[in-house]
Specification:
- By secondary structure, the protein is mainly α.
- It is 61% helix and 5% strand.
- The strands form two sheets. A five-stranded mixed beta sheet has the order 4-3-5-7-6, with helices on both faces. The chain has a two-stranded antiparallel sheet with strand order 1-2.
Amino acid sequence: MKPGKELMTTPNYQQCRWKTLFMKYSHNRPMTSVRLFLEIAVTCGLLLAIGAPRLLALDQFVTTDERLWLERSGRFYYALAHRDFAATFQRSHPGVTVMWAGLTGYMRVYPEYRESREGQNRPIGLNTLKRREFDLPLRILAAGRRTMVLLHVLVLGLSFLFARRLFGMLPALVGFLLIAFDPFHIALSKVLHLDGLLANLMLLSLLAFLVYLEERKRNAFVISAVAAGLAWLTKSTGLFLIPLITLLALFDQLVLKRDESKAGRRRSILHYASVPAVWGGIAALIFFLLWPAMWVDPVGSLGRIFTDAIGYAQGGHESAVFFNGKIHPNGQIPDLNFYLISFLWRTTPVTILGLLAVPVLLIRKRFVFRQDNSNSGENIPPSVVRQRWAVAALLLFALGFSAFMTLGLKKFDRYGMPSIAPLDLVTGIGLVWLARDVGQLFREKWRTTLIGAILLGLVATQAALTWKAYPYFFNYYNPLLGGSERAAEVMQIGWGEGLDQAARYINDKPNSEEIRVMAWYAGGPFSYFSKSRVSALDVDHPWSTADWDEFNKSDYAVVYIHQWQRDLPAEVLDHLKSLTPEYSVWIDGLEYVRVYKIQ
């Protein structure tokens, strides 16, 4: 045996080698030019992985809510241009960050919109713009979407930097690659809408605050508060951060930094009270500065937000909804398991595998993710306690937010989006631990290669599953549960995907400009791609003789998957049963759209 060979086979040597492997690029090590280059390269590669799938096909299809947010963004732009600050209150969500992003779409594509009027001091409507140029609303929307994607890349990039400081480079990288290739996350972060941006801002706020609690860095504290203010500007449910941050600050003072002296307890109480107060003050300042409606009517604006938020939670949907094989005619879903079931359908097999490792991860005496110079005795080192506590905080956020949203009777799978990104990050941590333990079963010289291959294979599997759902991504459903076809028996399917194909099919017909079409989701998902004369297939009232007259005068009727899931409108669907669709749109083996020729 060569000199030193015996040392290399001892358990202590193996343990040190594994620490070197996982902590190779830890932020605790002295900065070198090689390490700096590697960290920059890894971060840039991650940003590319986040941005690429979200920047593709931004003009491919439109979700139903995007038409509304594009219109609100236009009115927001018009109100700013005319200094009508009260009119920047467009919706009580409030969606201000989304409208700022949508505004950039108008500025890039149609800046003269700010001077366009339709009636007395009223901005021109999108339907009028479409009559001027067929694809103008779609080009404005695509430009606004591009801004949204860039915001997502920035926010997730900052979140990654904080996660790296908490857990080390490798677990943070794997976790954020899983976020980058999460199909539901991609779907919601490439549209002009609230929930994806809310999720990322809340994640950034939480991670930055956890770094502040560990390192007491002011920049982390300020970034956490700014992200919280932006989350509140996005959607009122971002206020969940207030009790969460308060609880984390309390736990940090009373448990992790326990001082039994009387003076120490007094300092802890003062610090606990001041931290959430200053954090909330900075967030509130951002909320005030970036929303001009707050400049002129702060009390009225806040009153409308809270009043409407309660109304949304208590009122349910305006029409019937489908969930777990049942139609809920009053639009209210009382099921307490809604977000759990939705998560299981929207997540991936890779995420489930990583989450299964988390319980063991939390009870181990030692993490392997960051350099730990403490003795390897029975006591758990403080650094390990903090890493474990950070994982627990992510789980607390994910589970707590889901429970919070369960209280409302109005439920959508996308409302639970803020819970998904932290679970993806925890999954990355779990997979690194799992890969490390699998690697221990093999000879030392193959261990590094094997662990890299395992993690690369898992991330590649996530990416491959996601790519199959291109370009919509909303059509992804967990293959472990049966995929799209089985999901149609449980989940309400469709948010506009596929209607673009139906519109293009009719566009290819002779004299398509003269064809009259009555379509579901007529405004936006269908009309932005249609050259025909389009009217809405409404369900918000019982059909009258006038409705039937318009229907019978139409050349085509376009119906959507969650219409027949909910039997809406029942009289129209009954009438169409006697007809055979001229054209159908199938996505992942599931029929999404039926085009019927009426006359």
